[in-house]
Write a structure and sequence with these properties.
binds zinc ion; binds adenosine monophosphate; 498 residues; alpha/beta; flat; 14% strand
């Protein structure tokens, strides 16, 4: 007989953004979960804020799998239709970058998709089950627009198609996720400009007619144009997960309008609400402000791994950063700082030391000073309470303390308990939190390397100030020869490892 799956014995609760409450999780089909997470718009390198959201959902994916669910995890790549400032008008983010760099839009897409994958794999994130692209689903998008028009919730205007929010709101509720009310939205918006194709300012584009200079365009019954950003996610989620599925996630900033519009589109096209549990991950901030591409208030993963940013006293390994993120609940704001990362690093190595210690411990006849079964239950309780990783980590440190007392022979552990302790630690630390057992010594070497290169950069700057260009060039060229490239910029000189 097959073992009872863990999920049968664990009562998982998920905070559902749409009800504002923690709800007992029940999938549509027993034992199976469909989960969709909005992926990146691939027009530039991901910053650490983006990474936090994807790492949060990686932890969620991991725990669901650990519970024994079969999870189909779909995370898309937005490679068209996302306009500047997340607005309804303006240039496509990918096309703009292509224009500025004089490249094909698909070269931009390829470059930043690759970067995203490399970064996520450094953070030990598991690849989603399906990673569909918006441009690969234009046909399906056209079909769903036709259905929404046929159902009376969209209209064509000058080659573009808009979702009719007021019409929809007569029979449905636009604003149910974000808690907004359409009347208030109308009262707070300015009149439409005379040139607008929309009936009302709240209406959003399902299909946009391309201006002559717009290079990313596809034929459709309405015009040569491109799909609306919100529609892409509706199409890719329903195609792979069905008209109704279990979990939809994304960063908090996507709640409105993006996810609100997805609900409206799903209801307008299929007559049923698309998602049972809406999950929103909170923001990573820097200096108390959201990390954001548009304001430049960001740290890149690359800077973090090399220590190459004035914010950082040293480089940090990806797993330390992941641990730092796991120490906050995914729904809490997390402020980034060098001090907090250093504290996480200390904690991380303490945890790893204990894991190494536990594998060498000898069992006694009884357990004294700790109840391993209760501790294991509490670890699960933390995760079952809306994936509370900071509480889980506090529990893991209770075990660390106990392990160290056993090591000092001030407590003992039975053979059975030792087995449970080892297995549970392994499950949570590596499988669920997704941490990697890195060696403190090798990370120490990378700290020293970065310190040494910074010293050479300073010596080179001194040589240049003294017009000793022979020395400054020698430092640059010889570093390059061993694979360390210096880059001079406005903020000073930085380096990368080739
Ligand atoms: P984008 O590529 O701009 O569509 O964003 C990709 C994902 O990153 C979305 O789910 C955003 O909500 C998320 N995101 C953007 N900025 C941050 C931040 N500072 N902290 C956490 N998540 C963020
Ligand atoms: Zn989306």
């Amino acid at each position: 007989m097959a073992a009872t799956p863990l999920y049968n014995t664990q009562g998982l609760k998920i905070y559902n953004s749409i009800s504002g409450q923690k709800e007992t999780f029940k999938p549509i089909t027993e034992g199976n979960i469909g989960m969709y997470v909005c992926g990146p718009t691939v027009y530039s390198n991901v910053h650490l804020g983006n990474c936090r959201t994807f790492i949060s959902f990686d932890m969620i994916f991991r725990y669901l799998k650990h519970l024994g669910y079969k999870v189909r995890y779909v995370r898309n790549i937005t490679d068209a239709g996302h306009l500047e400032n997340d607005a309804e008008e303006g240039e496509d983010k990918v096309a703009k970058k292509a224009r500025l760099e004089q490249l094909e839009p698909m070269e931009i897409v390829q470059r930043y998709t690759l970067d995203f994958h490399q970064v996520m794999s450094k953070f030990n994130a598991i690849s989603p089950s399906i990673e569909p692209t918006a441009t690969g689903h234009i046909v399906e998008q056209i079909e769903i627009i036709k259905t929404i028009i046929d159902n009376g919730f969209a209209y064509e205007s000058n080659g573009s198609v808009y979702f009719d929010v007021q019409k929809f709101n007569e029979t449905h509720h636009y604003g149910k996720l974000s808690g907004r009310n359409l009347e208030d939205m109308i009262a707070n918006t300015r009149e439409l400009s005379a040139q607008s194709d929309k009936k009302n300012p709240q209406d959003f584009a399902l299909w946009k007619k391309a201006e002559p200079q717009h290079i990313m365009r596809w034929p459709s019954p309405w015009s040569d144009g491109f799909p609306g950003w919100h529609l892409e996610c509706t199409v890719m989620s329903t195609k792979y997960l069905g008209e109704q599925f279990d979990i939809h996630g994304g960063g908090m900033d996507l709640k409105f309008p993006h996810h609100e519009c997805e609900i409206a589109q799903g209801e307008a096209a299929c007559g049923q609400t698309p998602v049972n549990y809406w999950m929103h991950a909170n923001m990573l901030t820097l200096n108390g402000k959201k990390m954001s591409k548009s304001t430049g208030n960001t740290i890149s993963p690359e800077e973090l791994f090399s220590g190459n940013n004035s914010f950082l006293g040293k480089p940090f390994d990806a797993t330390i950063v992941r641990f730092f993120m796991m120490q906050a609940h995914y729904r809490s704001i997390l402020d980034f700082s060098n001090d907090a990362l250093e504290a996480s690093e200390k904690g991380f190595y303490r945890l790893m030391d204990a894991i190494h210690t536990v594998s060498g411990l000898t069992a006694g006849t009884t357990t004294e000073g700790f109840n391993v079964e209760d501790w294991k239950t509490e670890c699960y309780e933390a995760m079952n309470d809306d994936f509370n990783t900071p509480i889980l980590i506090a529990k893991l440190f209770d075990a660390v303390k106990f392990i160290n007392t056993v090591k000092e022979q001030k407590a003992s552990i039975s053979k059975t308990d030792l087995e449970i302790l080892r297995q549970t630690l392994h499950d949570f630390v590596f499988d669920v939190l997704g941490l990697v057992d890195i060696n403190e010594a090798s990370s120490d070497v990378s700290d020293k390397l970065s310190g040494t290169v910074k010293l050479l950069i300073a010596l080179r700057a001194e040589a240049r100030a003294n017009k000793d260009f022979a020395t400054s060039d020698k430092i640059r060229d010889e570093l390059l020869e061993i694979g360390i490239q210096l880059k001079d910029g406005r903020e000073g000189t930085t380096f990368s490892l080739n």
